[in-house]
From TrEMBL:
<dbReference type="InterPro" id="IPR014710">
    <property type="entry name" value="RmlC-like_jellyroll"/>
</dbReference>
<dbReference type="InterPro" id="IPR018490">
    <property type="entry name" value="cNMP-bd_dom_sf"/>
</dbReference>
<feature type="domain" description="Cyclic nucleotide-binding">
    <location>
        <begin position="28"/>
        <end position="110"/>
    </location>
</feature>
<protein>
    <submittedName>
        <fullName>Cyclic nucleotide-binding domain-containing protein</fullName>
    </submittedName>
</protein>
<dbReference type="Pfam" id="PF00027">
    <property type="entry name" value="cNMP_binding"/>
</dbReference>
<dbReference type="InterPro" id="IPR000595">
    <property type="entry name" value="cNMP-bd_dom"/>
</dbReference>
């Protein structure tokens, strides 16, 4: 999240590269927990390869909140910034390659970047985009039917449907896997045949 500039603003990579020696590179299998719900987030996670999800436990059931893929970064932000227990677990869905940068170095990096002209404006744009995305998802969850939410996923982020196991997609949409199968079946029947 914070460091989307790696691909969008390559001129800032010189700052990121200064901190490579403080990062831990991990090649990890699917279902590896990178942060457990209730623990304090102390690492910024950058995904080189793979897929990661955030979720929370709701009376024994996982509720998936978000998916992250290559060249994206994340932390349990509120936990990371405020030193409070994370509301989410962060776990790999696929075999992944991730980099972990400890909080103290993230703080130093952000301090250095704050001296770069227009960096704060860039940071605000990144946070604004992320907030807009989450707001749109919240409104969709309240307003749209599960079928509409699935269709939105297919049209706006088809890579999730292609790469993420169905039970995680069902959890993300707030439906059972059986309900998701019904939605997919109904949509398949509605397709025109040529």
């Amino acid at each position: 999240m914070l460091f989307h500039f790696k691909t969008q603003f390559p001129e800032l990579n010189v700052f990121w590269d200064k901190y490579l020696e403080f990062q831990t590179r991990l090649e990890i299998p699917a279902k590896t927990v990178l942060l457990e719900e209730g623990k304090i987030s102390q690492q910024y996670i950058f995904i080189e390869k793979g897929c990661v999800r955030t979720f929370f436990n709701n009376n024994g059931n996982d509720k998936t909140v978000q998916f992250f893929f290559e060249n994206e970064g994340l932390a349990s932000l509120e936990s990371f910034v405020n030193n409070i227990p994370s509301q989410f677990t962060i776990e790999t869905i696929e075999s992944s390659v991730v980099y972990l940068l400890p909080k103290q170095y993230v703080t130093q990096l952000l301090h250095e970047l704050s001296q770069v002209p227009d960096f704060m404006q860039l940071l605000l744009q990144i946070f604004s985009r992320r907030l807009t995305h989450y707001t749109k998802e919240l409104v969709s969850f309240i307003r749209d039917t599960p079928e509409e939410r699935y269709q939105n996923l297919l049209s706006e982020r088809p890579h999730i449907v292609q790469r993420v196991p169905q039970h995680y997609i069902a959890s993300y949409l707030g439906v059972s896997t059986v309900h998701l199968s019904r939605i997919k079946s109904k949509l398949a029947k509605g397709k025109p045949h040529f």
